[in-house]
Design goal:
Shape: globular
Number of strands: 16
Bound molecules: zinc ion
Largest sheet: 7 strands, mixed
CATH architecture of the largest domain: Alpha-Beta Barrel
Order of helices and strands: EEEEEHEHEEEHEHEHEHEHHHHHEEE
Amino acid sequence: MKEFLLKAGTVIVGNGETLSDVSLLIRGERIVDVGAGLSADVSAVKMDYSDRVVMPGVIDTHIHVCFDDTSTNPAEVKKFSDEYLAIRGAEFAERILQHGVTTIGDAASRGDVSLAVRQAIENGIIRGPRMLVCGRMITITGGQDKDFRQNEADGPDNVRRATREEIARGVDFIKLLATGAISSAKTESINAHFSKEEMQAAVEEAHKVGKRVHAHAYGDTGMENAVRAGVDVLVHGHPMTRRIVDLMMKHKTLLMPTLVTYYESFQHHGEGLLPEHMIRKEKELFPLIEKGFREAVKGGIRIVLGSDSGLPYTPFGKSSMEELELMVRLGGMSEMDAIVAGTLNAAKALNIDAHVGTLEPGKSADLLVLAPDKNPLRDLSILQDSNSVERVILKGRSVVER
Ligand SMILES: [Zn+2]
């Protein structure tokens, strides 16, 4: 089996620690050892990055391959066939990898689109990150615009049926639409949709087979229902309050604030290209996001990277990295904590932390070699320029080199 011995000046492990002047021994897809003075087989490829920072590949748990990041209206997706969306989505996946994102979670797509893109990556037909999918979002009847063709279910038994259906289709995690949505023309984001009992049924079914449940939620009632139902990840979670923070701490719920999508969208409201209902809902919500998110960070909630890339003004690849910077700038997190949100915590949110997310023996060799003098612990914004990432290694193979 092919061996690499990669010497690094600084290794950001992904769990909050750094190591200096160590080597990573990679055999096949895995890291087999990390430490000083390691020796490798004579045939091993030796790479000397003793003046560089090496960090885990970034994990973005929330992207949508169905949506076009250059469009200002998510509803434009109605115009296209699933086949077209899958081919287009394949290009988006390749683009994400170029930025150093080595694992993505597709957080709802129409029909079988995300499953098709995942299969094309796994079969080596296209190049892309490791991809995990939730398949279709599970929503109440009328909870999302019909054109997105999500999995509608009403009442605990029916939600159980929908959850089993998505699991049977081969999804990696379950996504619930606990409340209305900003991108939906027909619902108000902060209105609660699913009851606690309905979401509990989904959590039971998903946990039986080791899958995580992510719940999209805005507003106090919907967030409380989701957390009390035992979902693993609260997605969006705005406006956050002290009461919900305490409840999340009690239930050990992770928070995925998707800051970048609101932040960027808000900067572009003046252009008048977004649908009117999105502008109105974002204007109501945006001023409350920062204060609530700071409360969550202060309260000790574990934060997860999810960018919502594909939505308007949220480009694939760059947005994953901008989300990390906003965690620091808006939320007061340290650079190190933001990196952990995009590595170890993100792996936990997808239940892959046993083999992905940190640079430790036994883990998948997913790592980034940064360009000279680039250190995200000093300045996280450098990651938004893909030229800062000189080499991307995924499952032990060099997939991007600059
Ligand atoms: Zn989303």
